[in-house]
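In response to reviewer comment 3 from the previous cycle, which asked for concrete evidence that the modeling workflow produces usable outputs, we include below a single protein chain processed end to end. The sequence was submitted unchanged, and the resulting structure tokens are shown without manual editing.
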Amino acid sequence: MTGSVRPGDPALEVSGLCVSYGGEPVLRGLDLVVGPAEAVAVLGPSGGGKSTLLHTVAGFVQPDAGEVYVHGRVVATASHSEPPEQRDLGMVFQSYALWPHLTALDTVAYPLRRAGRTRPEARRRALELLDLMGIAALAGRRPAQLSGGEQQRVGVARALAREASLYQFDEPTAPLDTALRATLQEELASQRSTLGAAVLYSTHDVAEAFAVADRVALLRDGVVVQVAPPGQIYEEPVDIWAASLTGVASALAVEVADTWLPRPAVGTLPSRATVLVRPEWARLGGPLPGRVVGVRYRGSDTDYRLETPAGSLQVRERGRPKARVGEAPGATVDRVWVLR
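The workflow returned the following structure tokens.
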């Protein structure tokens, strides 16, 4: 490792981070903490500042204001920035970022050689890492001779070769097809568990964020608006933007006197409120009047869109369609979350 790790220090702490490009703010006073051996996924739309955050932590971008701490040691401020090779972290890029003239073996061996290993030691360990990623047979190939999934595995192996206490993954599965994406997610989770390292993971894919993270940080316009475990992010979003980012969401205008509301929710409601309903929190048939205006069969489930007095309601039920457009079965809402 390139630096000492002090027990109890967060793996990463970002405080008041501001970054701009050409005078345009990208990160606006961002705060974030990643605990030891914790995985935090930064989730947000494209252009929201996810890659800028990771690149600033890695040392490729210097902040305009704020501080970056890695295991309690300040590595970046507006006036000081340690070079990337002096930070105790490994990074995997969305664009692979492999050297075109190096074989997979030499690419993975490079950080080991920089760390002082002899050439035979570095190549032996590099081959072990390539084998760990399932591509040892491709050790002699250059990037142009590898598929996208194979190149990304080389990138992961190169990052693991740093033997760092913090790893950053910048949308590593974005260029991959669905099957490869799932496989790489499993491999990353397995390696994180084995190494006990902390992870900062950037993605715009909700399912991916929920699958890989202990906590999820929602990034909007360069500011973290909510940080919580995946279940809390999904069930208790901070606002309708967060709700819509993390899944299908219906926002209904309600009054405490509405008889269709689930009884446990009534005691928590002001006289009037906007509530979130996830599609699996409602079912066809019940006291809320509603007419079907859309039906979408999804194989294992069917999604319905109902027009109700409280607004448009999405309902998801198992199996084939049970109602058709134009029918008015009404709905039962079993659960709501009050949006503040």
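The chain is about 25% helix and 35% strand. We consider this sufficient to address the reviewer's concern, and the full set will be provided in the supplementary archive.
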